[in-house]
Amino acid sequence: MICCHGLKLDEEVQEDVRRRLLSVKGHVEGVLRMLENDHVYCVDVLKQLKAVGGALGKVGDQVLQSHLRNHVVTAHERGDEERIVGELMEILKYR
Amino acid sequence: MICCHGLKLDEEVQEDVRRRLLSVKGHVEGVLRMLENDHVYCVDVLKQLKAVGGALGKVGDQVLQSHLRNHVVTAHERGDEERIVGELMEILKYR
Amino acid sequence: MICCHGLKLDEEVQEDVRRRLLSVKGHVEGVLRMLENDHVYCVDVLKQLKAVGGALGKVGDQVLQSHLRNHVVTAHERGDEERIVGELMEILKYR
Amino acid sequence: MICCHGLKLDEEVQEDVRRRLLSVKGHVEGVLRMLENDHVYCVDVLKQLKAVGGALGKVGDQVLQSHLRNHVVTAHERGDEERIVGELMEILKYR
What is the CATH number of the domain that holds D24? Predict the structure, then answer.
């Protein structure tokens, strides 16, 4: 079976993303351990959550850049630009 | 002189964006009038600023969608995909 | 008539915010002038919109800091903490 | 030893946050499983990352609301408003 109209995530990027997400997971586990502590300070939790969010944003950047480079710039040639632009705007649009 | 490597904002979108930005400008002027008042409440100002930011975000969505549709999906054919992806990531990247 | 339960924006901050917003308005007018040009590049517009958004965000920071400092940290003493927290969360909550 | 100047995360909120973060962790693990697949589509990954980011943002909202309610509105009474406002702005400020 062919995934996603034949457009799949670049292998190298996939490996990089996997590695980064493992680190995000480790970070979330770190915050979970903080929360087992009886005396955790709100602001310390907020700082960690913000850092996790930042790391997640950078993972997204990797995937987005790879998608632009490998699938979006060639969309007109393939003839699926309507779908490509629509689904991308769904993700990128302001809130 | 040829602007921007021959890639210019779609005329119809340009008109729509201009109209929306005029409304954003009017909104900013409204907040400025609020601030001439001696008794303005912080939260009312914050609400208005958030609304202006939202309107600005929607203007950006219009321009972004038009750029994707008219210039990004054809970048590989033109051969300028490196530049197109680079400058787009500069704008879209997570903070 | 007493505005906003007697809680008004600090005068000095109000002046600073007014000055910054005038600059935001000038920036929006600059983008409007760009859009009168027949050959404007999408990415140049997007960059300007992002800069305006950033300036707007900094205005918000000034107002927020002033609100926290002058009204939020004293809410329990006044007894209006329920309202103060509710309206602040409405503005700060994640999307 | 007294944590965080005696200001600790409300116990009930702490339990709710822990539960939500466990779910975020599960979600990240789900994306990691997606990435073991040979044929994963960029846009599907981006959608999942956006959903994880949204869930994380809601966790942050819980902690922030609890912090406002339990520590910020009483800061002036305790006399630590300078620190409280400073560290909060560090987290909330526009980028």
Answer: 1.20.58.1000
